[in-house]
């Protein structure tokens, strides 16, 4: 499982993972999970620099070019992948030490990049091989799936928590370079500790919220038109009787129409949405790339991630929605984790999460944290 060089874009974090990020991140495994700041070879990492880079990128500001950390040469791409690995571990109730093992493994195998090639048929963050039973190429290129498979393999290793990080990683990976993982333990530990601080409730406690559902009680904002009259909307379908509102601007109509033509295409975390119906899964859409490409068809440029899209255009109240407005949910109003487009009549189109297709949902089923109106779409 030898990593090779490649690059791929960053982006909208998997809702499947982020809906469960508040489960058990800080649950360590005793003294063994703490460890020293230095690897056996004596190499060290500036944990404060890692924390600053993590906070900047996951906070939506983008990487700080003045920060240099060995192993994080492409932080805007690598840190969101690291967050997916940590959040997947939390969702599976894997303790802190297991998350560090997973991060050290992915750093060694791919430098935390979702590679589309490698040694023989190795793919993805962990350079897992379809021929060795890890899954299909499409599955392995899904970071949530890949991390889940790694964790399940780790949990099947008897006594893994008493092993060194490199021994535990090797027990899962069976690498031709079994001692290579140790060098990345300090960076993996620094990443894990920095990332959990960015998660809801600091990675502790439990929200009880399922993906795509709005938590009860106060909080968030509700528009006046929630779409209750539509009833159940099957995945990938247009509700009978829906039409793009006559008052939608010409550009908004184009964006909505294009997005609706992607209904039923499967979500792909990190997908570009440039070929949603094509054979390459990375051409499919995640939440923010669906918005970016729909707007692009209308001649309006959006940035690529949910973190940056929430800063574009103008903030507007949720009771004044117009077709084409961007609706944000999950996470916080400042750093939301999911985005969709209001299409009128109390409906929102979005790419929900891994294993789910682009679909239309009722706005009333969302806890709206922020609404952004892009002036260029209404010009």
Keywords:
8% strand; 11 helices; alpha+beta; 379 residues; 30% helix
Can you offer a commentary on this structure?
- Residues 1-43 and 205-220 have low confidence and may be disordered.
- This protein is of the alpha+beta class and 379 residues long.
- The chain has helices at 15-18, 47-58, 75-91, 96-110, 137-140, 143-155, 165-173, 185-196, 250-260, 287-297, 306-309, and strands at 314-315, 326-331, 336-344, 347-350, 359-362, 370-373.
- It has a six-stranded antiparallel β-sheet.
Largest sheet: 6 strands, antiparallel
Global morphology = elongated
User: Into which percentage range does the β-strand content fall?
Assistant: 5-15%
* Helix content range: 25-40%
Q: Counting H and I runs of at least 4 residues, what is the number of helices? A: 11
**N to C succession of SSEs:** HHHHHHHHHHHEEEEEE
Instruction: Report, as a whole number of angstroms, the end-to-end distance.
Output: 51 Å
- What quaternary form is this? single chain
Uncertain segments: 1-43, 205-220
Round the Cα radius of gyration to an integer and report it. Answer: 21 Å
Structure summary, number of beta strands: 6
Question: Helices and strands: which structural class?
Answer: alpha+beta
Major sheet: arrangement of strands: 1-6-2-3-4-5
Mean pLDDT across every amino acid position: 81
Give me a quick take on this structure:
By secondary structure, this protein is an alpha+beta fold. It is 30% helix and 8% strand. It has 11 helices and 6 strands.
Give the topology, please.
Elements: H1 15-18, H2 47-58, H3 75-91, H4 96-110, H5 137-140, H6 143-155, H7 165-173, H8 185-196, H9 250-260, H10 287-297, H11 306-309, E1 314-315, E2 326-331, E3 336-344, E4 347-350, E5 359-362, E6 370-373
Helix pairs in contact: 2-3, 2-8, 3-4, 3-6, 3-8, 4-7, 4-8, 9-10
């Amino acid at each position: 499982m030898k990593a090779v060089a490649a690059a791929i874009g960053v982006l909208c974090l998997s809702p499947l993972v982020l809906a469960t990020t508040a489960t058990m991140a800080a649950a360590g495994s005793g003294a063994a999970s703490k460890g020293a700041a230095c690897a056996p070879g004596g190499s060290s990492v500036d944990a404060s620099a890692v924390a600053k880079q993590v906070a900047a990128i996951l906070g939506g500001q983008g990487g700080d070019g003045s920060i240099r950390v060995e192993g994080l040469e492409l932080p805007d791409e690598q840190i969101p992948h690291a967050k997916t690995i940590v959040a997947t571990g939390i969702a599976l109730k894997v303790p802190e030490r297991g998350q560090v093992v997973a991060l050290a493994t992915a750093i060694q195998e791919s430098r935390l990049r979702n590679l589309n090639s490698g040694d023989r048929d190795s793919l993805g963050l962990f350079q897992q091989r379809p021929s060795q039973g890890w899954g299909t190429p499409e599955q392995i290129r899904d970071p949530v799936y890949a991390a889940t498979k790694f964790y399940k393999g780790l949990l099947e290793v008897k006594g893994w928590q008493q092993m060194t990080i490199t021994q535990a990683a090797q027990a899962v990976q069976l690498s031709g370079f079994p001692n290579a993982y140790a060098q990345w333990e300090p960076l993996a530990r620094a990443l894990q500790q920095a990332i959990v601080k960015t998660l809801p409730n600091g990675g502790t406690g439990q929200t009880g919220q399922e993906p795509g559902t709005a938590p009860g009680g106060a909080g968030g904002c509700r528009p006046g038109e929630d779409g209750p009259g539509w009833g159940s909307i099957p995945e990938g379908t247009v509700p009978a009787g829906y039409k793009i509102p006559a008052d939608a601007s010409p550009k908004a109509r184009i964006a909505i129409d294009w997005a609706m033509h992607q209904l039923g295409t499967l979500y792909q975390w990190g997908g570009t949405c440039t070929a949603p119906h094509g054979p390459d899964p990375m051409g499919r859409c995640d939440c923010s790339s669906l918005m970016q490409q729909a707007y692009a068809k209308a001649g309006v440029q959006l940035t690529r991630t949910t973190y940056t899209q929430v800063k574009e255009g103008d903030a507007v109240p949720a009771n004044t929605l117009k077709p084409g407005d961007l609706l944000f949910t999950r996470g916080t109003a400042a750093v939301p984790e999911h985005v969709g487009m209001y299409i009128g009549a109390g409906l929102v189109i979005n790419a929900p999460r891994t294993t789910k297709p682009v679909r239309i949902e009722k706005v009333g089923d969302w806890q709206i944290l922020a609404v952004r109106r892009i002036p260029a779409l209404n010009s």
